[in-house]
Design a protein that fits this description.
The structure holds two protein chains of two kinds. By secondary structure, chain A is mainly α. Chain A is built from nine helices and four strands. Chain B has a domain at 51-165: Up-down Bundle (AhpD-like). Classes of the chains: A mainly alpha, B mainly alpha.
Chain lengths: 195, 171
């Protein structure tokens, strides 16, 4: 279905992920841990990532609530544009695993991969339209220099047609990947498919 | 009604009141508002076993100072002061001179915080394994990683909302 992309160490391949420390064994999981796994992600019970984070079930539960509300809620910023922002943040932070997942989701939603190829090649200035370029620019700015983001940064987004609700969703999508990337980067590593 | 929602840290730190459009827009995503506060409440729950509340607040303060996120740094510092945290430790953190901290477990956590906040790509297996070496159990490592990562989210959410509020105030 999708064209394989490999640019500067980033890819849209389906990767796995392995934890560097001990994960919770399903047969030893408490009822509270099982409940949180079930509500976090359809495949959480097979995922090292969730099986590691569920060492602290209530914290994982709140994180999953935030993540799912930010990425999947209807209305506001299009889901494809949320995935674009997530992919830009992951590219900037160097999270190959997150970038691969969200590049795929962007393609599923937008039926194209052109802007993702640009982001993988060079995030600064990437975007196929003025609106996309504004989303990419803002994603980079809030990721690298949150203290420099100001009224003018928001005005630039509005100039390309983003509403206040869309800007809020964009801020959420960028911020939640500051969180997600740091977990993926520091608790384990991606596993590349063997050819 | 002008009362700020005192129980919501983001609204309080960004100084959002319910008469502002930015507040109204934010609260249209109520699930995100409640899970953001819920995450903070869980991470700083005094009853959470493992890392002490003071240790967790020191990590949050240091993360905010490094970002930098001055309003949230003030918030976490004031919570530490209310808990009568060690003044010398606080001074070392505020001076970003954590190598002077004598508590090696706290120092290992703050070193890890620095890597994850400033250069997340450098957070490799060796950086993670330094934590069990400093005496942290796996569940404590999870708490620490979630805490630092949450603060990375919180500072960007606050910065974005502050910028939205600033533009709103100009018009």
């Amino acid at each position: 279905m999708s064209t394989p992309v490999h640019i500067k160490g980033f890819t849209n391949d389906t990767l796995s992920w392995k934890a560097w420390l001990d994960v919770v064994q399903l047969e030893q999981a408490t009822p509270a841990q099982m409940a949180v796994l079930e509500e976090s992600h359809p495949k959480a019970k097979e995922s090292d990532y969730y099986l590691f984070l569920v060492h602290q079930p209530e914290i994982l539960r709140q994180r999953s609530l935030a993540f799912n509300a930010i990425m999947y809620a209807p209305g506001g910023l299009s889901r494809a544009e949320r995935e674009l922002a997530s992919t830009v943040v992951s590219r900037i932070n160097g999270c190959v695993y997150c970038a691969s997942v969200h590049a795929q989701r962007f393609e599923q939603l937008a039926k194209r991969l052109d802007v993702i190829e640009q982001v993988f090649e060079e995030p600064n200035g990437a975007g196929t339209t003025a609106r996309e370029r504004a989303i990419v620019d803002f994603s980079i700015a809030l990721t690298l220099n949150p203290d420099h983001v100001n009224a003018e940064s928001i005005a630039k987004l509005k100039e390309t047609g983003l509403s206040n609700s869309e800007i809020l969703d964009l801020i959420h999508s960028i911020a939640i990947f500051a969180w997600a990337n740091r977990l993926m980067l520091n608790l384990g590593e991606p596993i590349f498919p063997s050819l | 009604m002008l009362n700020l929602n005192a129980s919501d840290t983001i609204d309080r730190v960004v100084n959002l009141s319910n008469q502002q459009q930015t507040y109204v827009v934010r609260h249209e995503r109520e699930k995100v508002v409640s899970a953001t506060q819920g995450s903070e409440d869980g991470l700083f729950d005094p009853a959470l076993p493992g890392l002490t509340l003071k240790e967790r607040l020191c990590v949050a303060l240091y993360a905010c100072l490094l970002t930098p996120a001055p309003e949230l740094a003030t918030e976490y510092e004031s919570r530490l002061v209310r808990l009568s945290a060690n003044a010398q430790t606080l001074t070392h953190i505020k001076n970003l001179s954590i190598q002077a901290i004598k508590d090696t477990r706290l120092q290992a956590m703050l070193n890890f915080t620095e890597t994850l906040i400033t250069k997340p790509i450098n957070a490799d297996k060796q950086a993670l394994l330094s934590l069990p070496q400093a005496g942290l159990g796996t569940a404590e490592v999870v708490t620490l990683a979630q805490l630092i990562s949450f603060v990375s989210y919180q500072v960007r959410l606050a910065a974005g909302l502050k910028a939205m509020r600033a533009l709103e105030n100009q018009s």
